[in-house]
C-alpha cells in the first residue's frame, strides 16, 4: 500500500479528533496542542466505539463511552476498562495534505 491523502492540515481543529478512512481502515486524526498530528485506530479496544467522538487532553484521546484514555503516541491504554492498545500510524505532511499509510504502523 502507499500513503493516502486523508484530509487537509487546514481541516484539522486543535484537540478535536477527525474520523477518516484510509484503504478501508478507520483512523482518528488529531492535531494536538503542540501542533503535532497523530493518527490512531478509531475503534476503542474495550467496545466498538469510535474514538474520534472522544475527548483530547494533552497527548491522549479518551473514549466518550467508558473513559479509557489512549496515548496518541503509543496507542496504549492509560486506564481501564481498556487493556489492549490501538494501532498508531505514521503521518506524513506534504504541504496541506495529511497522508497516512495504514500498513505502516508507528514503532513505539
In short:
This protein is mostly beta strands and 108 residues long. It has no helices and 9 strands.
List strands and helices in order, with pairings.
Elements (H helix, E strand, L loop, with lengths): L3 E5 L9 E5 L2 E7 L5 E5 L13 E3 L2 E3 L6 E3 L17 E6 L2 E9 L3
Antiparallel strand pairs: 1-9, 2-3, 3-4, 5-6, 6-7, 8-9
Protein name: Non-heme iron oxygenase ferredoxin subunit
InterPro entries: Rieske_2Fe-2S, Rieske_2Fe-2S_sf
Pfam families: Rieske
Keywords:
single chain, 108 residues, mainly beta, Rieske Iron-sulfur Protein, three-stranded antiparallel sheet, globular, 2 iron, 2 sulfur cluster binding, iron, iron-sulfur, Rieske_2Fe-2S, metal-binding
Strand order of the largest sheet: 1-9-8
- Counting structural domains, the number is 1
Instruction: Determine Rg (CA atoms, Å).
Output: 13 Å
Query: What would the CATH topology be?
Result: Rieske Iron-sulfur Protein
| CATH H-level homologous superfamily name | Rieske [2Fe-2S] iron-sulphur domain
Order of helices and strands: EEEEEEEEE
State the name of the first-level CATH class: Mainly Beta
Poorly predicted ranges (pLDDT <50, ≥5 residues)? Answer: none
**How far apart are the termini?**
21 Å
Strand content: 35-45%
Structural class: mainly beta
Mean pLDDT, all residues: 95
Total number of strands: 9
* CATH level-two architecture: 3-layer Sandwich
Shape: globular
Amino acid at each position: 500500500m502507499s500513503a493516502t491523502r486523508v484530509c487537509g492540515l487546514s481541516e484539522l481543529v486543535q484537540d478535536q479528533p477527525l474520523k477518516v478512512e484510509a484503504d478501508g481502515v478507520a483512523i482518528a486524526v488529531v492535531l494536538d496542542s503542540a501542533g503535532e498530528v497523530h493518527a490512531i485506530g478509531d475503534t476503542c479496544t474495550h467496545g466498538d466505539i469510535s474514538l474520534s467522538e472522544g475527548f483530547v487532553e494533552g497527548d491522549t484521546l479518551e473514549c466518550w463511552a467508558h473513559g479509557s484514555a489512549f496515548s496518541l503516541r503509543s496507542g496504549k491504554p492509560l486506564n481501564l476498562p481498556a487493556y489492549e492498545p490501538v494501532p498508531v500510524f505514521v503521518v506524513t505532511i506534504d504541504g496541506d495534505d495529511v497522508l497516512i499509510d495504514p500498513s505502516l504502523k508507528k514503532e513505539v
